[in-house]
Amino acid sequence: MTKRFKEATTVTPSSSEPEISAYQRALRDRLLAAPVVPAPAPWRPVFHNAYGAPVGGLLGIGFASHPDSGHDLVMAVSRDGHGLFDAVTGEKIARDRDPAPEDSTPDAVADLSCPGLGPVAGSRVRIAGLFGGGLHTTTEDGWTLESVAPAWPNDRVLLSRDGGLPHAGPHGEQWWHVFHSTYSELRAFGFSPSGETIAVATSSDLSLWTRRPAQN
């Protein structure tokens, strides 16, 4: 039997597509050269693990507020159910391994929300991630978060005090490369509505930083 093979198609760049400029190349090189560094004070990591808390099959995250302590809460929606984390202590304070099918993922409703659990049961939490949506990328006192991919598809999350790209100053002074997604897809990143928490979610992990002091 004769095997037939398709000839490889050679893709040629469009003549109308502009080449990358020297300015763009310099910006890309600067981003590539910036190593991952700890977030500056007053931020501190909530989890001890470098990549945060493992959440297999993570689809998205959303923020809520604890009605008693006032702590920011982060709800993680995954293929294995829903979980609720205290964003100050890192404790997983609620878990639903088998949510109702109509509530298991946020795309079932127009506002991309899922029912709250634990101390926020009875409310709904908007979820940002695989199905869309978004989180705050700025705070009232001048912090900014942004995602860049100078070596696509690996995303890098930058925290800054200079208003965002192009980051004219030296790395580590007014802007910091705080997270590099090298083995999982970036799902969502942003500040809590209070501005006290940073969350970065990938398809496998949840990383949190807080401005609240550590509790004894």
Q: How would you describe what is shown here?
A:
The protein is mostly beta strands and 216 residues long. Helix content is 6%, strand content 36%. It is built from 1 helix and 15 strands; from the N terminus they run αβββββββββββββββ. It has one helix at residues 22-33, and strands at residues 44-45, 53-54, 58-65, 72-78, 81-86, 92-96, 113-115, 124-126, 128-129, 144-151, 154-160, 175-180, 186-191, 197-202, 205-210. Strands 1, 2, 13, 14 and 15 form a 5-stranded antiparallel sheet that branches. β10 (144-151) and β11 form a beta hairpin.
Name the structural class.
mainly beta
Number of strands: 15
- Overall morphology: globular
Low-confidence stretches: 1-6
The level of helicity is under 10%
Order of helices and strands: HEEEEEEEEEEEEEEE
Question: Using only CA atoms, what is the Rg?
Answer: 20 Å
> Number of helix segments?
1
How far apart are the termini?
74 Å
Tell me the strand percentage band: 35-45%
Largest sheet: 5 strands, antiparallel
Instruction: Quote the average pLDDT.
Output: 92
